[in-house]
Design goal:
The chain crosses the membrane at residues 34-53, 73-91, 103-121, 133-153, 160-180, 192-211, 223-242, 254-274, 286-307, 313-335. By secondary structure, this protein is mainly α. It has helices at 22-29, 32-61, 67-87, 95-123, 129-135, 139-150, 157-180, 190-217, 220-242, 244-249, 254-280, 283-289, 293-304, 311-328, 338-345, 347-353; strands spanning 153-154, 333-334, 366-368, 381-383. Strands 1-2 form a two-stranded antiparallel ribbon.
Amino acid sequence: MISVVSTVESAPRGPGTQAPSLYQRIRKVLSRDLLVTLALGQVLSLLVCGIGLTSKYLADDFRANTPVFQSFLNYILLFLVYTTTLAVRQGDGNLLAILRQRWWKYMILGVVDIEANYLVLRAYQYTTLSSVQLLDCFVIPVVLLLSWFFLLVRYKAVHFVGAGLCLLGIGCMVGADVLLGRQQGLGGQQLFGDLLVLGGATLYGVSNVCQEFIVKNRSRVEFLGMMGLFGSFFSGIQLAIMEHKELLKVPWDWQIGLLYVSFSAFMFCLYSFMPVVMRRTSATSVNLSLLTADLYSLFCGLLLFHYKFSGLYLLSFFIIVLGLVLYSSSSTYVAQDPRVYKQFRNTGSQAASDPPLSPARVEPSVTYTSLGPDAGDELPVRVA
């Protein structure tokens, strides 16, 4: 059963009803669900921050440039935990049953996820950190478009304003980097590096939208189990072809081992926890929340790498949080059938032709309930 998010117009106040105070309006916007959603998104950002810090230590202090090997470790963990869970299941959720029905879809999704990680990590060798941070935001419009056309998600003006504020916050952060001269990672082929970031962001958007569809319509364990199976297989092949020489150059000791273990732990937690958050929210909301990860990395860099501080970083953080609050303050809705979307849009004209309701009988103008899985079922749309 797939539900359509309810959209209810505000009921008119009676002549003796007092207007809500500013405090009441703020409490209505900053509801418990919204605060929980923001907190879950920031947990994901902190995990991404941990991934970035361990990668920086490996690349800068130990000259271990092994992005494929690092991803391979994560996929192996997913395989050991979630693929084995599918293998011992009974019924339609069994590993063999899933492979018989849709193995090729998960194979393509696994390759997309692998290459998205690889392209963005490889781009750091060719372009600047600021370019990576800015161009990586290309995943936001990709997710918005894919969600609109393939998941049939419909947005309101407040969602676009919120997303725009988040992108403005990232622009503010990148501007602070440029003013402070933080241009790490500049290579001789900057255009090539920028194209790698755009390609990686596009693949991230495809992967995230597919992930949202799977965790909301099938199961989180199925998605992670299939990622572990095909991810470990194809990343292992890519590792053997492209990075076997790099692994031989790594000066192995307990410190490097600890960094690899930490990276794998952060990555595994991110992959395991993201479907939980995505099932509660959406791919767009998750990617907007992850924009604060770069700021957390910068705040850690002030202590660990002695970065210069700028007040623009704090301003950027507050702008992004404000954008997240605006985006999460209003629900999206799903047009499961073109008639539903048409009904939603025509509500205003229909309401205008209906006789006005008496003050004693106040009802919402539109109510959407759950839509059944059968395409031939009558749409449960009620117009009061």
